[in-house]
Specification:
It contains 6 helices and 3 strands; from the N terminus they run αβααββααα. By secondary structure, it is mostly helical. It folds into 2 domains: about 80 residues, Orthogonal Bundle (Arc Repressor Mutant, subunit A), CATH 1.10.10.10; about 45 residues.
């Protein structure tokens, strides 16, 4: 996922959760979530989202002669967020199913499986990556054992 995609998602999410807000409020709210962007870049993203019909821009009367611009998420934008959440849940399910497949095939022992999951979590790697490392280690040690047998 590109940084632009993340910004689009966070803009929609902030407008959905916090409601309509000014450009400046939106900019600082994104910054509070550590979504770093420039004001020019944010304006570009808002324009793109508006073109796609995901965000609407309204002008509200403000003090004296200035107009206040407020951005809000549209119904299409809300549906886009809902679709994204469903897709993320589907991906999570696929990942969990794959982990269950690994467990069934490689670790019929529940205690060993739990230790492997904890190791992967502690090292902040996927269970797939941990299994790959274990397999590579096994193949390397098997190769070393074969070489020692040949030398004898």
């Amino acid at each position: 996922m590109s940084n632009n995609d993340k910004i689009y998602i966070y803009i929609l999410l902030v407008l959905y959760v916090y409601g309509p807000m000014s450009f400046t409020d939106l900019y600082y709210k994104l910054d509070s979530f550590e979504i770093k962007t420039t004001k020019g870049n944010l304006q570009h993203h808002l324009n793109k989202l508006k073109e796609e019909g995901l965000v609407d821009r309204k002008y509200l009367p403000a003090f004296l002669t200035k107009k206040k611009v407020v951005y809000k998420i549209t119904d299409k934008g809300v549906q886009n967020l809902i679709d994204l959440v469903h897709e993320m849940k589907r991906i999570e399910s696929l990942i969990n199913n794959r982990a269950d497949d690994y467990k069934t095939i490689y670790f019929p022992d529940e205690e060993l499986w739990e230790r492997m999951l904890k190791e992967a979590e502690d090292r902040k790697i996927s269970i797939y990556q941990l299994l790959k490392e274990a397999f590579e280690h096994y193949m390397k040690s098997k190769s070393s054992a074969n070489e020692r047998v040949k030398e004898s």
